[in-house]
Amino acid sequence: MGLVKSLLYFSVHPNQLRAILQWKLWHDPVHARDPSKEPQSLKDCFKYLEMTSRSFSSVIQELNPELLVPVALFYLILRGLDTIEDDMTIPLGKKEPLLRAFDSIIEKDGWTFNENGPNEKDGELLVHFDCVITEFKKCKPAYQSIIKDITKKMGNGMADYANNAEHNINGVNTIKDYELYCHYVAGLVGDGLTRLFVEAKLANPALLSKPELSESMGQFLQKTNIIRDIREDFDDKRRFWPKEIWSKHVDKFDDLFDPQNRQIALNCSSEMVLNSLRHADECLFYMAGIKDQSVFNFVAIPQAMAIATLELVFQNPAIFEKNVKITKGDACQLMMESSQNLRTVCDIFKRYARRINKKNSPKDPNFLKISIACGKIEQFIESIFPSQNPEAIALQQAGETSVAQKKSAAEEAEAKKDVFYLMLAVFGTLIVVSGLMIGAAWLAGARFDVALNEIRQGNFAPKDKGIPQVQNTAPAFDHAEL
């Protein structure tokens, strides 16, 4: 049934199938990891990377060889730290010292941790954390220093939040607290990665003098995830939407999930989206400072996913009922587009900003602010890549077509052709599968002649003849004394 369902879906969404096939068949990574040259401990690290990373594993493994291992270990170390912080079965008296000392722990040979609760999905990483430590100590001292520094800052920040009883009970209160939380769990990651990129000479050193750019990179991703995961977090009794925002719309946080308050809840989510959108232009500015293609892909793909997710959750009541996410076809399309250059990433941001603006409702209290935020994104993109240039204007006045327009038209024609062939393939597969199922039924003894005869008579469903009365023919026994 899963195959049939997929075939039916792709038969009406052929562009989705086309994007998936293009990514799977024609994606050519800038760099390819070679496991045959790795020691067993490093192979184990990548095994746990694939186990714990839902979205970053593939892009990490396509990084420039200079940064492949440091970034992978950076991710695993922070994932281990987060696994301890996130486990509510670990007593605070034990958790806090671990969080604050984790930057020292990653230098202790053979250290492992097996006291996570049974439901902690990433606990396996800590059980075998010794392989991470082994490989970390092989990294260049400069990379070790950066990773240790970020680990220390993040560990202390997590410990502060773990100690904050108000946060643990009532969640985030103010927008300032919300920003600080996102800084600890994502902004610091952006800072550390930027320092690694610059140290490897794969990014412009000027990025270090503009820490607000790397901060926005992390904040944009984290805030988008927090908006998307509202239902999941609510079910887990976690509250990351700041009270300063939701209290403008409802009296109690739980009221956001009452179907009777759906429009009010959407207005609240719009304000959350607005808060996230203000980071978009700085994310684009940051990406302009990346020199290496693999690093550019690494930072651009998640940002493209984020702006697409932001458009998906905007004015979408489903976020209060279930966890929503972009389709696999859209994800593959975004990965193909965003792994090219800054212009294509800007086109993605412009496209989704326009979609958000189109969905924006005048009834929304933040209608004007959201329109301005979307306009600001387009204005920034226009300042980098003007939509009108002297050459294009001259060609337009002469009635000629520019090279870019010709290329775009050719790509569009090719896309239509591909979609046509994909639809033929999908329908052909449906016919073959249907034929096989009918043939199997016939071999099993199905009477198609009887079925066709009933259909001709207008009987499209079995008639309800009722339950026949069964006559009791059993002899009556006299239960007399034996």
TrEMBL record:
BP GO terms, sorted: ergosterol biosynthetic process; farnesyl diphosphate metabolic process
Cofactor: Mg(2+)
Keywords in alphabetical order: Lipid biosynthesis, Lipid metabolism, Membrane, Steroid biosynthesis, Steroid metabolism, Sterol biosynthesis, Sterol metabolism, Transferase, Transmembrane, Transmembrane helix
Pathway: Terpene metabolism; lanosterol biosynthesis; lanosterol from farnesyl diphosphate: step 1/3
EC number from the UniProt entry: 2.5.1.21
Location (main, coarse): membrane
Disordered: annotated span: 463-482
Reactions catalysed: 2 (2E,6E)-farnesyl diphosphate + NADH + H(+) = squalene + 2 diphosphate + NAD(+); 2 (2E,6E)-farnesyl diphosphate + NADPH + H(+) = squalene + 2 diphosphate + NADP(+)
InterPro entries, per the entry: Isoprenoid_synthase_dom_sf, Squ/phyt_synthse, Squal_synth-like, Squalene/phytoene_synthase_CS, Trans_IPPS_euk-type, Trans_IPPS_HH
Pfam families: SQS_PSY (PF00494)
Localization terms from the record: Membrane
Name of the top EC class for this enzyme: transferase
Listed transmembrane segments: 419-444
Superkingdom per UniProt: Eukaryota
Keyword Ligase carried by entry: no
GO molecular function: D-glucose transmembrane transporter activity; squalene synthase [NAD(P)H] activity
Annotated GO CC locations: endoplasmic reticulum membrane
Family: Belongs to the phytoene/squalene synthase family.
Protein purpose: Catalyzes the condensation of 2 farnesyl pyrophosphate (FPP) moieties to form squalene.
Name of this chain's protein: Squalene synthase
Organism per entry: Botrytis paeoniae
Lineage per the UniProt record: Eukaryota, Fungi, Dikarya, Ascomycota, Pezizomycotina
